[in-house]
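Project channel, design review

CF: Before we commit to the Vidua macroura constructs, I'd like one complete example in the thread so the newer folks can see what an input/output pair looks like. Taking PZP protein.
RD: sounds good, go ahead.
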Amino acid sequence: HSVVRNALFCLETAANEKENHVYTKALLAYAFALAGNREKRKALLDSLEKEAVRKDGSVHWQRPGKEPEADLPFHRYRAPSAEVEMTAYVLLAHLTSQPAPAQEELAFASLIAKWISSQQNPNGGFSSTQ
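CF: and here is what came back for PZP protein:
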């Protein structure tokens, strides 16, 4: 359909920008995964992997220039909801692929899922509905 084709062209143009924000890359990676564009999806995921924060056996993404979290006793840090959201989009992009994700990709996705689950509040929800 021409509307979808034009939208994908717009997204491809945005993906070719030199300096895309990590949040934009996460959304684009998921959009291209849904559209079945494996090359763009892989390129964006490769770029995102270079910006990943690896900590305590998990992986997540945060906004550039963010202050490091305070390491306080008896306090569990919870990331801002936008960081949980963009990390979730990266996870969706990893899991939304045809053919099915390879074992290596599933292993990496499990590290992302570990971080997302660590952000849940005591009631099983998250800091916002985002």
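RD: helpful, thanks. The longest strand covers residues 53-55.
CF: The radius of gyration is 16 Å.
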